[in-house]
């Protein structure tokens, strides 16, 4: 659980950085560069001799969905939404996590689903006023595609690694490689590689931070932490970053928030976590 909380704190700063510095760069290029940097971070730890080729292929596919497709949709949404709106519209990730988990296990976990709904309610309270704005529809759809990809990857990785005796850090480079490969067709189609020569020093610093820390290290911590908790705690944890991101947007990026809504919504999310201690995996 500590891994998930630590990652949520770091990710809270990512929304403002992307909105403030990277929206002028093609989203496929941003996704490709972040994943290439993340892959380089974990390449020295790769130990694949004990990893069958079938497992390698599955890990590449999981990475392609969880990181490649997710990042492309996620980054593209910033062209249509403010940073705090992007954070807000990830509220449905817990629902996707529980649905994907139930599909994998072929059973309905009522408690996990109830916890996820409670987390969604808590997050919606934080900024309910944005749901009726007309300009968010395209960004909202892109975000839900990203949420679904991220939810699938988390659950699929947990299920896959549970039956393999492999170290997480020894195979994680494969996930980033799969994610990077998934961005290439979209990058070639959009012609976004032309933006490579226009990236300034400030944007490179943001990309390096996001690629090495927010993507490379944090996604590893997140998937590793996801294996240590049950599906209910994992679902709710996906929304921890939202009130944190909104608070960061106010404190560091000058966006206006309603403090009462933030405290009330955050309290409900914490309550959802406390309802399940997460000591058992139970996926």
Characterize the main sheet.
none
Distance between the termini: 15 Å
Mean pLDDT score, rounded? 79
User: Order of SSEs, N→C?
Assistant: HHHHHHHHHHHHH
Cα-atom radius of gyration? 18 Å
State which percent range the strand residues make up.
Answer: under 5%
Structural class assignment: mainly alpha
> What ranges have pLDDT less than 50 throughout 5 or more consecutive residues?
277-283
Number of helices: 13
- The helix content, as a percent range, equals over 70%
Shape designation: globular
Number of strands: 0
What does this structure look like?
By secondary structure, this protein is mostly helical. Helices cover 73% and strands 0% of the residues. It is built from 13 helices and no strands. The chain has helices spanning 2-11, 14-21, 27-42, 53-77, 83-88, 93-105, 110-126, 137-162, 168-190, 201-226, 231-237, 241-253, 259-274. It is globular.
Summarize the structure.
The chain is mostly helical and 283 residues long. It has helices spanning 2-11, 14-21, 27-42, 53-77, 83-88, 93-105, 110-126, 137-162, 168-190, 201-226, 231-237, 241-253, 259-274.
């Amino acid at each position: 659980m500590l891994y998930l909380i630590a990652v949520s704190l770091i990710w809270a700063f990512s929304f403002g950085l992307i909105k403030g510095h990277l929206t002028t760069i093609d989203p496929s290029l941003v996704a490709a560069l972040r994943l290439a940097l993340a892959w380089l971070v974990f390449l020295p730890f790769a130990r694949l001799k004990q990893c069958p080729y079938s497992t390698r292929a599955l890990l590449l596919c999981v990475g392609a969905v969880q990181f490649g497709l997710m990042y492309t949709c996620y980054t593209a949404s910033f062209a249509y939404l403010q940073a705090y709106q992007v954070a807000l519209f990830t509220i449905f990730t817990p629902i996707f996590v529980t649905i994907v988990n139930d599909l994998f296990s072929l059973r309905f976990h009522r408690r996990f689903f109830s916890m996820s709904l409670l987390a969604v309610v808590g997050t919606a309270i934080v900024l309910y006023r944005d749901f009726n704005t007309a300009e968010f529809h395209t960004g909202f759809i892109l975000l839900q595609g990203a949420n679904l990809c991220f939810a699938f990857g988390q659950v699929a990785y947990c299920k896959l690694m549970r039956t393999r005796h492999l170290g997480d850090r020894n195979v994680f480079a494969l996930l980033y490689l799969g994610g990077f490969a998934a961005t290439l067709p979209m990058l070639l189609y959009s012609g976004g590689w032309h933006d490579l020569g226009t990236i300034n020093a400030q944007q490179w610093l943001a990309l390096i931070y996001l690629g090495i820390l927010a993507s490379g290290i944090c996604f590893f911590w997140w998937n590793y932490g996801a294996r240590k908790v049950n599906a209910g705690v994992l679902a709710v944890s996906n929304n921890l970053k939202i009130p944190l991101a909104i608070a960061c947007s106010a404190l560091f990026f000058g966006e206006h928030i309603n403090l009462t809504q933030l405290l009330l919504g955050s309290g409900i999310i914490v309550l959802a976590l406390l309802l399940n201690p997460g000591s058992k995996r139970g996926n």
